[in-house]
Design goal:
The protein is mainly α. The chain contains seven helices and three strands; from the N terminus they run αααβααββαα. A hairpin with a 5-residue loop joins β2 and β3. The termini are far apart.
């Protein structure tokens, strides 16, 4: 049997499951935290986001923000001022992720064992869970 000349292998993105897509978009160590902070604070400048996140390099923050902007989760607004000013905020698509992250945070709070050495401190600024 001869295969058609129009055959092409399936692209990796065509065979990924929806969970993998979601985790690629808003998973990882820093993206959920950036979304959390923008949800809580609204419009923020790069330096303000950086101050909110502990132990985050400029390279990682700029890369995560660029990916979130490319995926339509975060809006980057540049103002034509001197000096130039750029602000980041959640898009409607980004806001739609917040309930998902809230559910994950609620689940984690049920099963995370808190002790003096391992306290969940990053979410103290989030309004995900009413504590």
């Amino acid at each position: 049997m001869v295969r058609s000349m129009t055959y092409r292998p399936r692209d990796e993105r065509e065979i990924r499951c929806p969970l993998e897509y979601g985790m690629d978009i808003f998973g990882g160590k820093w993206k959920p935290r950036i979304i959390c902070i923008l949800n809580h604070k609204g419009h923020m400048r790069y330096s303000d986001i950086k101050k909110e996140l502990v132990n985050l390099t400029d390279t990682v923050l700029s890369s995560a923000l660029r990916e979130l902007v490319e995926d339509g989760i975060v809006v980057r607004e540049q103002f034509e001022e001197i000096p130039p000013r750029v602000e980041y905020s959640l898009s409607d698509k980004g806001v739609s992720i917040v309930p998902i992250l809230q559910s994950i945070c609620e689940w984690s709070s049920l099963f995370h064992r808190v002790d003096e050495e391992h306290v969940l401190t990053q979410c103290q600024t989030c309004d995900f869970i009413s504590r």
